[in-house]
């Protein structure tokens, strides 16, 4: 049986430049091997892509409405409920923490494209063929305090393990169960990377039984509203996703 290992990587503060090169310089070559997954906080991807907006240029509400795929309205604590890049998440993922100049930090413009570009560069430089990339963020869970990690995007592996039709311990056939590997990886790595001043924007995951591949897509994880367990709650407020 494989043993799961999560190795957080502490780095200097990334301000600008070639993110792939920054990652290569930050991770000891001895830690690089086939079938590893590299988790990268989406914030430094946003920094690399200069996804900043000055607070002086636009109000937060207007910016959220501009960035959101679906705007569901104001909620508590000065936040707004939105859907962005396939996630139900507050304020379209716009971040105000760890911003050196106090600007708003937006999500990468195309998170899957960003993950693919890093995957291509790192796989070539490291000379490995089986590599997974996960861009992480934090999100809240209804009726729970605190935040946990979630995958904003991923590349290089199948994000879902389909268990429908397999048997449970007592031989009963599973009717609905699939394992969301991408979000599971994100949750475990964000737990180790931290949320504040740790300066650990990277983490290496080893020991997972993954199916590595060449192409990834949000369609692999996204679920139509009509099939979603929470569809009856969301559908009155959403005409189209």
Fraction of residues in helix: 10-25%
**What's the N-to-C terminus distance?**
40 Å
Q: Tell me, what's the shape?
A: globular
The secondary-structure class comes to alpha+beta
Overall pLDDT: 93
Strand content: 15-25%
- What kind of oligomer do you see? single chain
Rg is 18 Å
Q: Which blocks of ≥5 consecutive residues have pLDDT under 50? A: none
Largest sheet: 5 strands, mixed
Strand order of the largest sheet: 1-12-2-8-9
Order of helices and strands: EHEHEHEEEEHEEEEHEH
Number of strands: 12
| Count of alpha/pi helices | 6
Question: Care to describe what's here?
Answer:
The termini are far apart. The protein has helices at 19-26, 42-48, 60-67, 111-126, 181-193, 231-234; strands at residues 5-9, 36-41, 52-53, 70-74, 80-84, 87-90, 104-105, 131-140, 147-155, 160-162, 178-180, 202-206. α1 packs across α4 (111-126). With 241 residues, it is of the alpha+beta class. A 5-stranded mixed β-sheet has the order 1-12-2-8-9. It contains 6 helices and 12 strands. The mean pLDDT is 93. Helix content is 23%, strand content 24%.
């Amino acid at each position: 049986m494989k043993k799961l290992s999560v190795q957080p990587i502490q780095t200097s503060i990334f301000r600008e430049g070639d993110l792939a090169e920054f990652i290569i310089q930050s991770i000891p070559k001895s830690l690089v091997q086939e079938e590893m997954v590299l988790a990268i906080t989406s914030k430094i991807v946003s920094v690399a892509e200069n996804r900043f907006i000055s607070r002086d240029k636009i109000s937060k509400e207007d910016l959220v409405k501009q960035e959101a795929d679906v705007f569901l309205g104001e909620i508590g604590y000065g936040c707004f409920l939105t859907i962005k890049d396939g996630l139900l998440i507050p304020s379209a993922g716009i971040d105000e923490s760890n911003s050196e100049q106090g600007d708003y930090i937006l999500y990468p413009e195309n998170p899957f494209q960003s993950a693919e570009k890093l995957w291509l560069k790192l796989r070539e430089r490291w000379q490995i063929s089986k590599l997974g990339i996960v861009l992480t963020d934090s999100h809240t869970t209804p009726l729970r305090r605190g935040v946990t990690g979630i995958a904003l995007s991923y590349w290089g592996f199948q994000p879902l393990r389909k268990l429908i039709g397999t048997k449970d311990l007592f031989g009963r056939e599973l009717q609905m169960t699939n394992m969301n590997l991408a979000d599971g990886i994100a949750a475990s790595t964000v737990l180790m990377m931290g949320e504040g001043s740790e300066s650990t924007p990277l983490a290496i995951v080893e020991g997972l039984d993954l199916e590595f591949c060449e192409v990834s897509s949000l369609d692999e994880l996204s679920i139509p509203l009509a099939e979603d367990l929470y569809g009856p709650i969301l559908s009155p407020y959403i005409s189209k996703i």
